[in-house]
Amino acid sequence: MTERDQKSSAFIVIDIQNDFCPEGALGVAGGDTIIAGINQEIERFDHVVLTQDWHPADHSSFASQHEGRSPYEMITMPYGKQTLWPDHCVQGTQGAEFHKDLQWTKAELVIRKGYRKAIDSYSAFFENDHMTPTGLGGYLKERGIKNITLAGLATDFCVAYSALDAAAQGFNVTVLPDLSRAIDIDGSLQTMMKQMRNAGVNFR
C-alpha cells in the first residue's frame, strides 16, 4: 500500500467481542479464529476503527423483552423487520468487551452502536431505521478517507450492513470474507453476499 493509499484508507473491525465469539451469548462459529489475521491487518493500516455492540440490558432486540418470543424469531418493529436475539453485549459486561486476543489499542476511534433501547444497529454507519447516523461517515470523510476495508462479526449482519451503507455513501469498499464469520440464519449469508456484490462491494 502506497503512502497516499495509507492516508486515504481505513480498516474497520466489526464487533470482535466476547459475546460474539464461541461460548459467548451470541457466539458465531469460528469467531475467534479470525483474530490473528485481523491483528495482521490492523498492523498494515494507518487508520483503524472498531465497532462495539453496546446494548442496555432491556434492549428491544432481545427476545427476553418480548413475551412468548424466542431468539432468532423475526418481528416487525416501527422501523421494519427485526431479528430477535439472545441477550448479548450488555453495556459494562464482560460479554461486551473486546476479545482479549484482539490487538485493538491502535484504533483511533471506537463506534458504539445499539445503545438506544428502542432500535437495533447492525451497521457501523446507520441504525436499523437507515436514517439515524452514527457519525462514522462524517468522521471518515473529514479525515480524507476514501477506501474502507471491513472484517469481523458477523458477515451476514453487521459486516454486510456496514459495507452496504459505506458503498451507498460513496466509499470504495472491500470486505475480507476470510477474516469474517457468519451466523447464516435461513440462508442470510448467501443473501447478503449477493446484495454486497450488487452494490459494488469488493472482496479480497
TrEMBL record:
It comes from the Bacteria. The keyword Heme does not apply. Keywords: Hydrolase, Metal-binding, Pyridine nucleotide biosynthesis. Pfam families: Isochorismatase (PF00857). GO terms for molecular function: nicotinamidase activity. Residues 9-201 form the Isochorismatase-like domain. Pathway: Cofactor biosynthesis; nicotinate biosynthesis; nicotinate from nicotinamide: step 1/1. Transmembrane segments: none annotated. Its EC number is 3.5.1.19. InterPro entries: Isochorismatase-like_dom, Isochorismatase-like_sf, Isochorismatase_Nicotinamidase. Belongs to the isochorismatase family. This is nicotinamidase. It comes from Pseudochrobactrum kiredjianiae.
